[in-house]
Amino acid sequence: MLDTLPPCPQCESALTYQDQDKLVCPECAHEWVIPVAGSQAGFIEEETVFKDANGNVLVEGDSVTVIKDLKVKGASSVLKAGTKVKSIRLVAGDHNIDCRIEGFGAMKLKSEFVRKA
Fold first, then answer.
1. pTM for this structure?
2. How far is CA 23 from the centre of its chain?
3. How far apart are CA 76 and CA 6, in angstroms?
4. What angle do CA 69, 70, 74 make, to 5 degrees?
5. pLDDT tens, position by position, for the chain (117 residues)?
6. Which end of the chain is less crowded, N or C, counting CB atoms within 10 A of the terminal residue's CB?
């Protein structure tokens, strides 16, 4: 990791801080990926583009709709098709959508089981 954090590329503020795998500027709320040592450009490649079941590009804060009934581990009920999910957060990993669903709580979903609302 870096000894010192770089200034914000948007507003040049030196008050940046790390939040998981991103750097954040508290003054302008700009977020960007953390530089990685040994990378050719000095930064992680552009973030992965996540697409829904229909091929539409998903972005942070989108609303999506579940397209098929999904079994929920640890719950006795099923997440029904047509359930609307608001304010998604995109993350890297096996499940690429973090969200909160009324009646279920915090969940992780795969983008292939949702469509943009």
1. 0.58
2. 14
3. 47
4. 140
5. 445 788 888 888 888 888 877 888 888 888 888 765 544 444 434 557 889 999 999 999 999 999 999 998 888 889 999 999 999 999 888 888 999 998 888 999 999 999 998
6. N
Q: Which residue has the tokens 């989108």?
A: 62
Give me the count of residues in the chain: 117
Cβ neighbours of 3 (radius 10 Å): 4
CA distances from 68 to 15, 55, 115 (A): 44, 16, 10
CB 23 within 8 A of CB 32: yes
From the list 104, 110, 111, the residue with the least C-alpha distance to 74 is 104
- Inter-residue contact 29 to 21 (CB < 8 Å): no
Q: List the structure tokens of 43.
A: 């930064």
Distance CA(79)–CA(116), nearest Å, equals 17
Kindly give the pairing relationship between strand 114-116 and strand 105-109: unpaired
Contacts of 29 (CB under 8 A, 6+ apart): none
- Check if the beta carbon of residue 52 is closer than 8 Å to that of residue 111: yes
